[in-house]
Amino acid sequence: MDIEGVVIFEAKSGIPLYSRMKGKTDPSLFSSFVAAIGHFSKELRFGGLSSFTTEEKVIYLAPREKTITALIAPKKKEYQEAYSLASELGRRFEENIELPRVPQPKQFDSFAQVADEFLKRIQNPFVSEVSAFVTAQYKGEVSVKARLFKKDGSQGTIDLLVDASASNGNSRATTDQFGSNYIFVKVCEGSFGRLQMIDFIDSLDGFGVRVMDKDGLAFRPYFPSRAVVVARDYHQGAIQFLERLPTHRDRRYVDGAHIYAGLKLKDIPKESRCFVDLWLWKDDEKPELLEVT
User: Fold this and answer.
1) Which structural domain, as residue segments, surrounds residue 104?
2) Are residues 130 and 23 in the same domain?
3) Residue 101 confidence class, pLDDT cut points 50, 70, 90
4) 220-248, pLDDT tens digit by residue?
C-alpha cells in the first residue's frame, strides 16, 4: 500500500499531535488534509467513520480511546473507476425512479437488475475496463457476466454479452431470435491458451432459449455474429487453433450452419458466420487488433 503521510490527532479535540509526510508532498496540501480531518473529528467524533476522500487522496482513520491515526494514500485507478460507476448508478436511479413524498424501500425493487449489473463492474475492475472498451468499439448494450440457458436446461455465463441490435438498426422488439445481433466476449487478464480458445469457440453454439412450438418445447439456439477475446497475451497454440478456421474476406470465422440443421423453426438466418476478433490488451494504450493469417 502506498502511504504518503500519517497524522495522529487527539481524539477529543482533533488537534494534530504528530505528523509525517512522504517525499515532496506540498505542505499546503498537507494543511488542507489536517483541516479536513480536524473538521471530521469535531463534527462526527469519528463515530464509525473509517475513511473519506479529497479530490486526489484517500484518508483512512483508526480511532482509539485517546488518539485517532490518519493514513493518507493516493486514490488508485480502481477507486476512481468504482466511484465513477457509483455516481453513474445514482444518476440512473434518479432518472428512472420517481421518488414519492414518503418513499418505501420495496417500491424500488425493480431497480435491482440495474444495480446488480453495476456491482458486477465494481467487483471486476479489469472486466469493467474491457466493458468500456467493448461498448465504444462495437456500439452496443453490454451485460457483464450475462447468464444464458444451455441446451441441457442449465445456465452458463458469458463474460460480456453485447447486444448490437440498436446499432444495427433493429428495434428491441425485433431483437434477433437467433442471436445474430449478439457478440460474445471472453475476457482474460493473463495469457489466453489453446484450451481456453477451444472451449470458447466450442461454446458459441451452446446457448439459446426454450420456446413452445406445435410439437412441444424446443430449444432455439443463439449464434452470435462475432466472438471476441480480449487478453493481455496469447499462447501460440491459441493462434494456431484459429488458423484452422475458414476465412471470408481475410477474416476468420466459425461456421454455424450445422446448428440449424433439422430445426423446424421460422426465419432461420441465411448467414451463419461468427467472425472472431482477438484484441491484445494494453494498460496505457488502445488495445491492438491481432491479425490471424
Assistant:
1) 78-110
2) no
3) confident
4) 778 898 999 999 999 999 999 999 999 99
Give dist(CA 23, CA 72) in Å, integer: 13
DSSP H/E element including 70: strand 67-74
Q: Which of 38-47, 92-101, 125-134 has the highest mean pLDDT?
A: 125-134
Of 176, 142, 135, nearest to 158 (Cα)?
Answer: 142
Kindly report the pTM of this predicted structure: 0.61
Q: Compute the average pLDDT of residues 43-48.
A: 49
**Counts for the chain of helices (H) and strands (E), in that order:** 6, 15
Segments in 66-153 forming alpha helices (H): 77-96, 112-123, 125-138
How many CA atoms lie less than 13 Å away from 10 in the CB half-sphere? Answer: 4
Based on the fold, state whether residues 58 and 106 are members of the same structural domain.
no
Contacts of 181 (CB under 8 A, 6+ apart): 140, 163, 164, 165, 168, 170, 175, 225
* Same domain, yes or no: 183 and 277: yes
CA distances to 143, 180, 182, 184, 214 from 156, in Å = 14, 18, 15, 12, 27
Which pLDDT score is estimated for 208? 84
Count how many Cα atoms sit within 13 Å of the Cα of residue 167 in the half-sphere of its side chain: 15
